[in-house]
């Protein structure tokens, strides 16, 4: 009987040690997220009127306001008409970086496009917005 009680106690203590691992992981990730932070100059840019079939680069600027370096790990445009580029080196605390989205409109009219940015500073993907109006290219023959 004594052996069963000792075995049950050991089993209970063993299981309790596994349940303590998750809270420690959660605390560590919260500290890492709090250590690095970014502030965007603008999360939405209205480019106004742009000519059809002429690439238009739009630059989103951000500043690292945290205590550790920020690394941009991925930037994705919402369509094939938006090419992206970004600061590829780690951005030190107090320094700035950029994400550039180059929009090449084939169709005239209003548009709204998004750019998704993944960094080590935020747990969720930051979605930046570009909007404006594409003006049709002039067609016709001059006489």
From TrEMBL:
Record's keyword terms, sorted: Signal
Pfam families, per database record: DUF1573
Signal peptide interval: 1-26
Protein name, per record: DUF1573 domain-containing protein
Organism field: Flavobacterium taihuense
